[in-house]
Amino acid sequence: MCVLILQISLDTMAATQKCYAKGSCAPGPVPEGHLRIYSMRFCPFAQRTRLVLQAKGINFETVNIDLKEKPEWYLEKNPQGLVPTLELPNGKVIYESPITCEYLDEVYPGKKLMSSDPFEKAQQKMLLEDFSKIVPLFYRIPGTKSKGEDISALETELKEKLSKLNKVLVNKKTKYFGGDSVSMIDYLIWPWFERVEAWQLKQYLDGTAELKNWTLRMQEDPTVKAIMFKPEDHKVFFDSFMAGKPNYDYGL
């Protein structure tokens, strides 16, 4: 038996709904002329895909998933149970954030977010691979600190990796990682920097002037501004997440 949850067809500017959890009914077919993204409001990985959907002006609806009590029907769509997942009008699904983002840029018209130059595209994918090694530190430092354990080695590692990221901008002499305008690589990196203040990691940006300037520019990007949360909202969710009781529906 499933519990019916009201699902409203959303466009790119609409607010999301409360999470679907275990025991809920699956939503109906994807509305004509739309995509559906299975997401979680505070998930940085899902935010990547929502940024690309927003930037390209794609019509979509959002179905948020309770990642602690996942609906049975969602695991049939994505056996990994992670977000984001894209569902197409024909019922086919695509998941993993970089893959969904690249698909959207290749299939949908409008501003191209990925470079058409094969070498530049490869450079950005290499940069994303390097950044993927930074992401775990954003979680490990607060988690280790909350246990009262020594975080000095983790702090040193994070500072070194952020310094290397800063050097990329210094060497490129551009405003953004992909050039002088926001591109795919910027949207793929941004979500964790939106959270540095809430996760008490902002001090690790000291000494990375170009990276700091990049964060300030990204905060003014219309796409980022359209879907970003305030630091205090991120903090409330992150605190609940760290306590083992994530409040996915905070603020709704």
Keywords:
Glutathione_S-Trfase; alpha+beta; globular; Glutathione S-transferase Yfyf (Class Pi), Chain A, domain 2; 10 helices; four-stranded mixed beta sheet; 252 residues; Glutaredoxin
Q: Tell me the name of the CATH class of the largest domain.
A: Mainly Alpha
CATH topology of the largest domain: Glutathione S-transferase Yfyf (Class Pi), Chain A, domain 2
Helix-strand makeup class: alpha+beta
Gross geometry: globular
Strand content: 5-15%
Strand order of the largest sheet: 2-1-3-4
Q: Cα distance, first to last residue?
A: 25 Å
Based on the coordinates given, report the CATH architecture of the largest domain: Up-down Bundle
What's the Cα radius of gyration?
18 Å
Poorly predicted residue ranges: 4-16
- Write down how many β-strands occur, each being a DSSP E stretch of 2 or more residues: 4
Overall tally of structural domains? 2
Question: In percent, how helical is the residue content?
Answer: 40-55%
Major beta sheet summary: 4 strands, mixed
The helix/strand series, from N terminus to C terminus, equals EHEHEEHHHHHHHH
Count of helical regions: 10
Rounded mean pLDDT score: 93
